[in-house]
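User: Just a sanity check before I run the rest of the batch. Below are the C-alpha cells for the first item. I only need the designed sequence back.
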C-alpha cells in the first residue's frame, strides 16, 4: 500500500504552473493529496490519482479566517495521518507547518521560492521575516529553489544549514521543453500582429507589472535606447495601475512599445522575442529565464539572489546591478550592436536548460528527495 503525502498551497496556480510534473512523478509511488484554496475543478485534469481537498487559505492576513483554516488543516492531518506534508508559499507554509507540527506529522517540508520582505523595511519587514523564521523552525526539512537564495536565508538567520538544501541546480519544477521551444510560426504571427519587422531586436518582459519587478527601470532604460529597430514587448497584468507611469517614461518611443496584458501562452511571445528582460528587485529563482532559454533566447537580469542562479553572466545572458537603469540600457545596446553575442548567449542558455533544468530532471530530483525520507 502506498504511503500518503500532502502538498499544501494557497492558490491552484502554484500547482498548475509549477508542480504538475513533480506531482505526477510522486503519484506513481505515493498517494498524493493536494490542499488548495479552491475546489478540485481548479486543478489541472492532467493530474490523475490525486485527491484534492479544499481549505480556505487566503494570501492576505485575516486572523479569524486563518484560524479557521488552521483548524481545518489539523482535522485533515489527524484524519489522514500523512507520512509527509509539504507547503509552498508563505501563508500556506505558516499554516501547514503549524498544523502538521500540532498533528504530529513526522516529515514537514517547506519550500522557499522568494521572500516578500527582501525589499521591505521597518515593521513589515520584521513581521514577514519572523513568519519565515517560524516556518523554518516548525519544518523538519527546508527546500530553497536557488543556491543564492539559500545563502541569503542563511545570512539572515532564517534557515539552518543542517536542514536546508537546493534540489538539483535550482528551480522547483524546471521547464516543460515540449511547451517552451523555438516556434517560427508563432514568431512570424506575433510580429505580424504587432507590426514588428524581422530585423528588429525585440526585448521582452513577462510578468506582473509592479515596482518590485523593476518595470519602471525597464521603461527608463528603453526610453534611452535610440536604435529605431529596438522594440519592447510587455506581457503581463497591470496589477497596480503602473502602466501609466511606464508610458510617461516611454513617451518618446511609445510607437516601439507593445503592451499585451496577460497571456496564457507566454511561450508564443518568447518565440517572437530576441532577449528577455528581468529587472526585478526580488525573485526566488527566475523561472521565466529558463523558460525563455528553452525557446532559445538569452536574458538580461538584475544581479540579485535567484536571478544570478538562472543567468550565467556573459555565458547565458547578462547581469546588471538592480535598480541601475544605466547598466540595463548598456546591456540592451550591447546585444543590439553585437548579433553574434546575442546568438551565442541564446545557444548557451538553451544548452544549459537541457542539461540542468528540464521538468523531467527536476521531477526525478523531487522523487529522489522523498524516497530518501518517506
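Assistant: Here's the designed sequence for the first item:
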Amino acid at each position: 500500500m502506498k504511503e500518503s503525502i500532502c502538498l499544501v498551497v494557497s492558490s491552484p496556480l502554484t500547482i498548475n504552473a509549477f508542480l504538475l510534473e513533480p506531482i505526477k512523478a510522486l503519484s506513481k509511488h505515493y498517494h498524493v493529496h493536494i490542499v488548495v484554496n479552491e475546489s478540485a475543478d481548479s486543478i489541472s485534469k492532467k493530474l490523475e490519482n490525486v485527491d484534492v481537498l479544499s481549505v480556505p487559505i487566503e494570501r492576505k492576513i485575516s486572523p479569524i479566517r486563518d484560524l479557521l483554516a488552521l483548524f481545518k488543516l489539523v482535522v485533515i492531518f489527524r484524519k489522514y495521518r500523512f507520512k509527509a506534508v509539504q507547503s509552498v508559499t508563505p501563508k500556506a507554509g505558516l499554516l501547514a507547518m503549524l498544523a502538521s507540527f500540532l498533528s504530529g506529522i513526522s516529515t514537514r517540508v517547506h519550500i522557499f521560492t522568494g521572500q516578500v520582505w527582501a525589499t521591505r523595511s521597518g515593521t513589515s519587514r520584521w513581521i514577514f521575516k519572523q513568519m519565515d523564521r517560524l516556518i523554518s523552525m516548525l519544518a523538519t526539512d527546508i527546500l530553497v529553489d536557488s543556491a543564492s537564495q539559500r545563502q541569503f536565508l542563511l545570512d539572515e538567520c532564517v534557515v539552518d544549514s543542517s536542514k536546508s538544501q537546493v534540489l538539483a541546480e535550482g528551480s522547483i519544477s524546471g521547464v516543460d521543453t515540449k511547451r517552451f521551444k523555438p516556434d517560427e510560426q508563432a514568431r512570424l504571427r506575433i510580429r505580424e500582429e504587432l507590426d514588428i519587422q524581422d530585423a528588429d531586436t525585440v526585448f521582452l518582459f513577462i510578468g506582473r507589472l509592479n515596482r518590485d519587478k523593476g518595470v519602471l527601470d525597464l521603461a527608463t532604460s528603453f526610453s534611452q535606447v535610440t536604435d529605431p529597430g529596438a522594440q519592447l514587448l510587455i506581457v503581463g497584468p497591470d496589477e497596480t495601475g503602473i502602466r501609466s507611469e511606464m508610458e510617461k517614461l516611454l513617451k518618446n518611443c511609445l510607437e516601439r512599445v507593445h503592451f499585451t496584458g496577460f497571456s496564457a501562452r507566454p511561450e508564443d511571445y518568447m518565440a517572437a522575442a530576441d532577449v528577455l528582460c528581468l529587472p526585478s528587485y526580488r525573485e526566488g529563482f527566475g523561472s521565466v529565464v529558463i523558460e525563455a532559454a528553452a525557446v532559445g533566447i538569452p536574458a538580461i537580469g538584475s544581479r540579485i539572489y535567484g536571478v544570478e542562479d538562472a543567468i550565467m553572466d556573459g555565458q547565458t545572458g547578462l547581469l546588471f546591478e538592480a535598480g541601475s537603469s544605466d547598466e540595463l540600457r548598456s546591456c540592451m545596446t550591447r546585444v543590439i550592436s553585437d548579433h553574434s553575442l546575442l546568438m551565442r548567449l541564446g545557444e548557451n542558455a538553451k544548452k544549459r536548460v537541457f542539461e540542468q533544468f528540464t521538468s523531467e530532471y527536476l521531477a526525478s530530483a523531487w522523487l529522489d528527495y522523498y524516497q530518501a525520507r518517506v
